[in-house]
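User: Hello, beginner here. Can you help me understand these amino acid letters and fold codes? It all follows right here:
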Amino acid sequence: MMEPQTDNGTFEATRTILAPMPVLGIPEVLVDEARGLWSVRAAGAEQPSIYRCSDIRSCEVFEVEGDQQPEPEGFRALGDILANPMAVSRANAARRRDRVFGVGVLVEMAEPVAPVRIGLWARQLKRGSRAYRNVVDSAQELKRTFDTMITGELHG
């Protein structure tokens, strides 16, 4: 992944868009409004990735769906359960289609920069639950912030 070069390599955060939560794997997202830059630092990373606000093309909320695999039968099903019960539970939840396995925001950038995935939740959530609504609301709020960066309306 290529990243745009910053002006003289300096970044001074003037606004926190997303506060980090390392225990949950939530990254830190900051903005340098004076220089028109934003950064994302993944949980555990020493240095952030820095991007130009003007390079943002679009932003959307994404949900991680489970793999739709056929249901195993007979002894194969029993063997799968014994070998990896968590995988079987996850596959069953995916078949019901009432669960997501992650929620985040995908920021499309100008070429040649790859899209930036900002994960907000990486665990199983039941659609319609209060936790699901809270996570999706947070993702929508983050998306709205990026939308204001696209239109140039972000102010401190």
